[in-house]
């Protein structure tokens, strides 16, 4: 399974990941319209550790650490219903995408350990996600 931050159908990816012995996590952003709501949703859905500080740096740290997830051959994070958040908070959406990309790149560069794949999925998966030019990461 290759890392993807392009919209994809969800069911086949979840099925393939589970058959391969991967841990699968769904981050549903339905109704999320603020950074604070996003951080709460990430904490709950991803079952982030108690030390998660609810900010961009803490989210990035959790996604690079992953010791808080059960051991598995790989990990799939499926981000669903994200378009409303992307439309309402385009700058925060861009920061989230950059953090996810950096986490996927980090795990891809490791010689050992499980892979991390992030999948964007929603009912309009054929459309491209809203993207802005790559910027230096701004966290706060």
Written overview of the protein:
It is a single chain. The protein has 140 residues and is α/β, with parallel strands linked by helices. It has helices at 10-19, 35-45, 56-65, 83-88, 90-109; strands spanning 23-28, 74-80, 115-121. Helices cover 41% and strands 14% of the residues. A 3-stranded parallel sheet has the order 1-2-3. α3 runs parallel beside α5. The radius of gyration is 14 Å and the shape is globular.
Terminal CA distance: 33 Å
- Tell me roughly what share of residues is in helical segments: 40-55%
* Assembly state: single chain
Total count of strands: 3
Low-confidence runs (pLDDT<50, min 5 residues)?
124-140
Based on Cα principal axes, name the global outline: globular
Major sheet: 3 strands, parallel
Instruction: Tell me the number of helical segments per DSSP (H or I, 4 or more residues long).
Output: 5
Q: List the helices and strands in order.
A: HEHHEHHE
Strand content range: 5-15%
Structural class: alpha/beta
Indicate the mean pLDDT: 83
Order of strands in the sheet with most strands:
1-2-3
**What is the C-alpha radius of gyration, as a whole number of Å?**
14 Å
What key attributes describe this structure?
140 residues, disordered C terminus, globular, 5 helices, alpha/beta, 3-stranded parallel sheet
